[in-house]
UniProtKB/TrEMBL annotation:
GO terms for biological process: extracellular matrix organization. This is HPSE2 protein. PANTHER family: HEPARANASE, INACTIVE HEPARANASE-2. One of its GO terms (cellular component) is extracellular space. It comes from Mystacornis crossleyi. It comes from the Eukaryota.
Amino acid sequence: DYWLSLLYKRLIGPKVLAIHVAGLQRKPRPGRVIRDKLRIYAHCTSYHNHNYVRGSITLYIINLHRSRKKIKLAGTLRDKIVHQYLLQPYGKDGLHSKSVQLNGQPLVMVDDGTLPELKPRPLRAGRTLVIPP
């Protein structure tokens, strides 16, 4: 929770943006409950974050499915470079792991008072985003 909260505080600004996700709006069949297992949120990037220009958008995606999901950005987002901050459990214990990795690298404090650099993974414009479970 700590690393997620830290990234959230650094990236997410107060302005929430409306988004439309094609393919998630399904009609329920009788007797079936549709649970939204792919959650996508959009905010203006925090104006306190000097690594990004005003007008930058931060998407955060939570995939509760058991398999990876692919997302293709559309509209004006299609032509933008994406900085991916992919948080996952680190180690063989999966969700029970006590460690977290960012873009495949374990997150650990540099020393008692120094946070590691939280580097994004740049993805080329137009690339399909693959979101692991």
